[in-house]
Amino acid sequence: MKTEQDLKDVVKNRYAKIAEQDKAVNASSCCGATTPSNKVYNIMMDDYSETEGYVEDADLGLGCGLPTQFAKIQAGDTVIDLGSGAGNDCFVARHETGTTGKVIGIDFTPEMIRKARINAEKLGYNNVEFREGDIDNMPVSDNVADVIVSNCVLNLVPNKAKVINEIFRVLKPGGHFSISDIVLVGDLPDALRQDAEMYAGCVAGAIQKKDYLNQIEKAGFENVSLQKEKTISIPEDILSKYLTASEIKDFVAGETGIFSITVYAEKPGGSQEKPKQEKSEAESDSCCEPQSKCC
Fold this sequence. Notes:
seven-stranded mixed β-sheet, Rossmann fold, 20% strand, single chain, 33% helix, alpha/beta, 12 helices
């Protein structure tokens, strides 16, 4: 049985390689970790390309939802992205929080941190920073964030309850999170559940949906709700690495479901909701993007 540190090392080593892979490879596998499927579609990810703030160079095709779309980010907010990768969700969040806010990305893979910082520097985003560290022991003080987002990352952490407690610690009273993640209904076949590669591929590390939501409530969060849910189907050419033909047939026909959910919850306390700040004329003017020379 692998220890928590063993599993963390598997994920870190795999995602160091993923940082240098082409997006198409990541999108056609399970979170970039497994051998790519020959099916021409994306297994986990949602399409970011029409999302404001989207940065193609920062999109590695590793997500399983669009948490920033549901995160209710306001201008001036401090936002933390857990498992920030090359920075895409941070840059989308920065579009919402504007120049008056702050975005912090946390990732424990040095290669990802380096890639994200390069992307931020190219964009000239001085209020987006990336910190290397574990999300179950965040390099952030108490009561810092207005909003926390994360995209297909908690399932990779062995001690999910510890991460959820860290989220509670770091959020300001009255703050909230919107997190996309992989959960299960029913038990995975042992071959999938025990394989380290499938752990790094977001599937074997997933827990039961009801347990996931219970852990959030147990940590003290309130107003817990599902903002989105979709079924994840693993192609047979990936399953065949782990299961026999008859096992694949039983698995596909069985009651076990693999789902991507986007879950929302609030930390109790805080004052009434602050009024939404309007973006300044300079921020609203598309000619004043960081790439533009007119400003």
